[in-house]
Amino acid sequence: MEGGGKPSLQVVYQAVQALYHDPDPSGKERASCWLGELQRSVHAWEISDQLLQIRQDVESCYFAAQTMKMKIQTSFYELPTDSHASLRDSLLSHIQNLKDLSPVIVTQLALAIADLALQMASWKGCVQTLVEKYSNDVTSLPFLLEILTVLPEEVHSRSLRIGANRRTEIIEDLAYYSSTVISLLVRSISGTPKPHFSHYHLLSHTIPPSSASCSLQQQDKTSSNLHEAASDCVCSALYAIENVETNLPLALQLFQGVLTLESAYHMAVAREDLDKVLNYCRVFTELCETFLDKIVCTPGQGLGDLRTLELLLICAGHPQYEVVEISFNFWYRLGEHLYKTDDAVIHSIFKAYIQRLLHALARHCQLDSDHEGVPEETDDFGEFRMRVSDLVKDLIFLVGSVECFAQLYATLKDGNPPWEVTEAVLFIMASIAKSVDQENNPTLVEVLEGVVRLPETVHTAVRYTSIELVGEMSEVVDRNPQFLDPVLGYLMKGLCDRRLASAAAKAIHNICSVCRDHMAQHFNGLLEIARSLDSFTLSPEAAVGLLKGTALVLARLPLEKIAECLSELCAVQVMALKKLLSQEPSNGLSSDPTVPLDRLAVIFRHTNPIVENGQIHPCQKVIQEGTWLWEHPQRFYFPALVTLAALCIPTFQLLEQPNGLQNHPDTVDDLFRLAARFIQRSPVTLLRSQVMIPILQWAIAATTLDHRDANCSVMKFLRDLIHTGVANDHEEDFEVRKELINQVMNQLGQQLVNQLLHTCCFCLPPYTLPDVAEVLWEIMQIDRPVRARGPAAGGADPDTALYAEECKQVCWALRDFTRLFR
Q1: CB-based burial, 699-733: b 16+ in 10 Å, e otherwise
Q2: Which of 39, 633, 670, 701 has a Cα-to-Cα distance from 100 of 20 to 30 A?
Q3: What would the pLDDT profile of 762-800 be if each residue is shown by its tens digit?
Q4: Rg of the chain on CA atoms, in Å
C-alpha cells in the first residue's frame, strides 16, 4: 500500500485474484503480503463493506467477510461507539444478501456478527432480536442457525478483548434465551420448513430435545445428512449426561426415546440403507455407554433395562461387520466392569448375552466363500478380525473358556460346515485356546489330534488358521509330548508352503518357547531350518522368531554342546556379514547389514543357559571369535545411508507421478518408517547427508495425505526429526545435532508450519490433530517465533498456541482454529 492511502477497489480485486489464481508462487506471496497490510489498516473497514455490497465474485466476498471478522476481533477499538449500530445493520444485510453465495462466507459473517454482539454492550437481547427478525423467513433460517451456533462458541475465545464481567453477563444472557432457541429448533424440526442438518448441529451445542431428534430418526424419508445430524444430536445429549441422577429427567427422556428406534432400525435394514443403520448403532451404543453403571449394578431394573443390550445384539446380527464394530468399545468396558465386580450372580445374568455376541462375531469373521489364499491381516477386514480376537479374549471369562471351546468344536465335529465356517470357528478357538484349563481336558487333546490330521487338500485359509491354532495350543503339546512329532511334521509341511510359511514359523516359535525341554531332541532339525532360513518365504519377523525359538531350545542343551551348536547357529549370519565387509560400500542395497545383525542379536539375547558358579559360560568362546565385528563399526553406518539414498531415488520418482502420494500410501508409510528409524539410530549421519532436504520436502508434501498409517508415519518422522535438536542434551553430539536441526528448520521450517496449518484445515480428519499438534509442539521447542509467523488471517486465538505450556494446549488451539473452516 503505497503511501498508506486508501487503495482503489480495482487494485484490491487484482490482489485477490492474484492470491487465488496467479500461477507464479512469488506473485501469490506478494499479493498475500499486500492484502495482509490492507487488513491491518483502518481502510479495511470501508473496503470490506464495499466489496460485500458489490458482490463481484466469491473470492473477493470471502476476503471481505474474513477481513471484517478479523477487524472486529482484533481492531474493534478503531470504530467510534456511534458507528456500532450501523455496522451491525450492515453485517445483517450482507449475510442476508450473500446467504446463497457460499457457506464459507456465511460462516465468516456469522462469526463477525457474533463477535460484534459480544463486544457491543449496547446490543441488548441480541438472541431475541435475531430470532424475532428472521425466524419466520424460511430462506433466512440457515444463517440464523449459523449465528446462533457460533455465538456460544465465541464467548470463550481469547481473541476477543472483553473482560471477565462481560463474559459472565453474556453467558447469563445466553442461558436466559436458551428456551427461545430450543423453541425455534423444535418448531422448525417438527413442522415446516423441512429441517436442515444445521438444526441438529446447533442442538448438539445446547440442551438437546431428544423427542424431536428421535422422531426425526424414525421418519422413513429423512435424508442421510439430516439423519446423521439428528443422530449426532442424540449422541451429544447422551454423552452430556455425566451424572445420571443429576440429569434424571433428560436421562429418562433419552432412554425412552432411543428404545423406540428399534422398528426404525429394522426399516433401515430392510431398505439396505447402511448409513442410517450405522447411525442407529451409534445411538444404541452411546445409550449403553451412558447407562453402563446402571446396567451392571441394577441389571433389568429401571435405567439398567437390558433391552439396551438387546438393541446392540440386534445390530450384531447385521450382515455388515462395520455395524457391530461400532459397539466394541462398550463390550470392552462392560467386560472390564463385570470383571471388577466379580459377582457370580451378576455374571450369570450377562452370560447369555455374551454367548450370543460371540456367535455373532464368529459369523462376522467368516471369509467370503470365493476367497482364495490365506486370510489377509493388514486390510480392513483383517484388522476387524484382530479386534474380534482381542474382544473375545476379554469377554471369555463370562462364558467359560472350557465350555465355549467345547461348543465351538462341537459345531465342527457334529456337522459338515462349509470351509469358511470351519475357518472362522478355528479362528475364534485360537483366540481362547490359551485361556482353556489344561487339566483333564480331553477336548483339547481331541482338537489337537484332529487338526494335525487335516489333509493338505483343505482350503488354504483353513490350513493357515489351523496352524495358528496349533501355535496357540503349545501348552497342550507340552503336557502331551506324544503329539510333538506329528505337530512338528504338520508345521514343517506348512513351512515349506510359501503361503503358510510365516504362520508355521510363528507356531514353531511358540512350540519352542513352551516345550523347550521336549524340543531339545529336535535341535538338529531346528539348526537345519536356521541354516536354510532364506530358502523359506518368511517375513522378517517370522524369521527372527524362528531363530529366537531355536536359541531358547539351545539354552536347554548340555553345557558342553552349547558352544559348538551356538557357533553353528551363528555361522550363517557371520558369513553374510563377512561377505558384506569384503564388498565395496558403493554396492548399495546389497550392503545392508541390518538383517544378519538383527538375527545375531536375537540369537545371543535368548541363549541363556543355566551356568553355576565356577563354570565357564558356553557363549564366551563364540563371542570372542566374533570380536572382528567391532573392528569395522564405521562400515555399518555408510551402507545403511546408501540403502536409504538408493530407496529414495525410485520412491521419489514414483511419488512425482500424478496423484503419486494418494496412489501409493503404503510406499509413503514404508519410506518414512525407515527414515524415522534412521533418525532414532544415527541422526547426525542422516542430517549431514544430501538426502535430508529432499526427504523433508516430501514429508511436508505428504502431510496432506489422508491415509491413517501413512500420515502417522510422516508425522512421527517429523516429530522425531525435530525432537533430535533438543533431546539428550547431555550427549557429546548434542551441539552438532542442535546446529544441524536449526539449519534444516531455517531452510524449511516456515514452509512446514504453513503446510501443517493448511493440512489441518482442509485435508485431514479431526482425529489426526493430536499428531500434528505434537509436530508443532516440537517446532515450538526449537523456535517459537517460527510458529508465530504462521498465517494470521485464520481468526484462531494465537496466544493459546504461542504460549502453550504443554502439547495438549496446542491441540486445543488447532481444534478451535480448524473449526472455522469446516
Answers
A1: bbebbbbebeebbebbbbbbbbbbbbbeeeeeeee
A2: 39
A3: 888 777 888 888 888 888 887 755 434 444 333 344 445
A4: 33
